[in-house]
Structure formats: C-alpha cells, structure tokens
Design a protein that fits this description.
- By secondary structure, this protein is mainly alpha-helical.
- It has one domain (3-85, 143-222).
- The chain contains five helices and no strands.
- The longest helix has 80 residues, at 143-222.
- The termini are far apart.
- Residues 1-23, 107-148 are annotated as: Disordered.
Length: 223
C-alpha cells in the first residue's frame, strides 16, 4: 500500500485528526522506533545481557503486531523483512524420492543345477501407485481487510500519541502551578520577615526615643 493511498484512508476516518503524508510517516516512524527499543530491552533482560535489575516489560497486542510487520534483528537476533517487500521462501525440505530395490532376476524356466526340488515362482505383485504430493495453495488475505487493519492500527497509534501529549501538558501545568505556589509562598515569607524586621526596628526606635527624652529630662533637672 502506498503512503499516498494510506494517508487518504487515515484522513477519511472521522475519529482521528487529518495529517499530511509526512506527519503520518513521522507517527509510524516514532512508534516503530519505540517498539524496537522496548523489544530490545526485553530481549536483553531475557538473555541476561542488560547488566541491571530485571525488567518486567511486556509488549502490548498492538506492539506485537508492529514487531511482526517490521521485525528487529538487533532485538531478537532474527532478521524479519518488513511487510510490503517480497520475500522468497526457500524450502529446506528434501524432495520426496522413491527408492526401489531391484532384486536379481531369476529364470524359473532354466533347469536347476541343484539337487533341491524346484520352487514355484511367487505370484506377481502390483506396484503401488506413485504418491503425488499436492502443494497447498496459500491464499493471501483480502486486500480490503488488510487495509482496514492497517488503518485502524495507525489511528490507534495517533490516538495514543495525542493522549500522551495531553497527559504531558497536564503534568506540565500541574508542575507549573506547584512552582508558582512555592514561589508565592517564598515571596509571602520574605514579606512577612521584612515586616517583622521593620516592626522590631520601629520598637527599637521608640525605645531609643524614650531613652533620649529621659536623658534630656535628667540633664535639665541636674542643671
């Protein structure tokens, strides 16, 4: 299926957002790379080459379908060609061969040179009919069903990407609100401390004023 045709099918579905061909390619490329990375982590954890704690990761049904389509030699050690490219199936089975053991011919009409009595020849047996191996004909799935499944998979990928972006924005807004609350608390605390300092300074000035007045009165009485 060409990308132009696939883009038309995806944009015709009202449940998703319309995108250009390049953006749909980007959606597929990002999701494919994420599946490869996750599969590689699982493979390293299973083979004990990760060098860290055990991972408890599982591929989702959709991720398994993507891995069946693209294949990852680096993650699984087995090369699987991506869907859309022809693959030649090389048969490793040995062809069916029929081995016939030929017995030496005996002329039963020739006079026997042995002293033993002549034995009657065995009755002729009919050879079994040759076995014909009929190859099973593989019928590819209907093209329409394959297109519908591919369209559904792309729409699911796009929906999850939008959900992830929405969740990311929500978390960012919450963090920003928390940061503003912390900033507001810090500002209020600084204002409170400054007010306390000014109050203490006012009390100290009032005390000094009273002390000066008392000193002046003392000096006046003394003079």
């Amino acid at each position: 299926m060409k990308w132009k045709e696939l883009t038309g099918l995806l944009n015709s579905d009202s449940s998703g957002d319309p995108k250009s061909e390049d953006k749909w390619r980007k959606v597929w490329s990002d999701y494919k790379n994420n599946c490869k990375k996750k599969c590689a982590k699982i493979n390293r954890a299973a083979s004990g080459t990760g060098g860290g704690p055990a991972l408890h990761l599982l591929l989702t049904d959709q991720e398994q379908r993507v891995m069946q389509i693209i294949g990852v030699q680096a993650a699984t050690g087995m090369e699987i060609k991506e869907a859309g490219f022809p693959q030649e199936e090389i048969s490793t089975e040995m062809p069916n061969t029929q081995i016939i053991l030929k017995e030496p011919e005996i002329d039963w009409n020739a006079p026997s040179t042995s002293s033993q009595p002549t034995v009657a020849p065995p009755p002729p047996t009919e050879a079994p009919p040759p076995v014909i191996n009929e190859e099973e004909e593989w019928n590819p799935p209907p093209q329409k069903k394959r297109k519908n499944n591919l369209t559904k998979m792309f729409l699911d990928i796009d929906r999850k990407a939008r959900e992830y972006a929405s969740e990311r924005d929500r978390v960012y807004e919450e963090l920003e609100r928390d940061r503003l609350r912390v900033r507001e608390f810090e500002v209020r605390e600084r204002v409170r401390q400054r007010d306390e300092e000014l109050r203490m300074q006012g009390q100290w000035l009032e005390f000094m004023k009273e002390a000066m007045e008392a000193f002046v009165r003392f000096m006046e009485r003394k003079s």
